[in-house]
């Protein structure tokens, strides 16, 4: 596997577009405001939803809770033609850095 770029949460705007591949319950508890949510298990069927990234020649910064799922997803996305990077530390690091987060029910965001 090639080495993928690591992006620090502090290097991204609070409303940066991230691809969040966590499960629905994790997303509901707290996510970045500008994130696109496609759970890892649904990605092969829904990858076309990322087409706007390709059109704008943007790097897709991918996140999960702490990085394990991203490590399995980045090589596949690269094979599909996407420029990809990992959010170093995942949503745990985003939350710890005090970055803005939203929840589905308005409660305080959590990244268990």
From TrEMBL:
What are the UniProt keywords, alphabetically? Transferase
Single GO term (MF): transferase activity
What is the protein's name according to its record? Answer: Sulfurtransferase
Record InterPro entries = GlpE_sulfurtransferase, Rhodanese-like_dom, Rhodanese-like_dom_sf
Q: Does the keyword Transferase apply?
A: yes
UniProt xrefs under PROSITE patterns: RHODANESE_3 (PS50206)
For the keyword Calcium, the answer is: no
Tell me where in this chain the Rhodanese domain is found.
Answer: 12-103
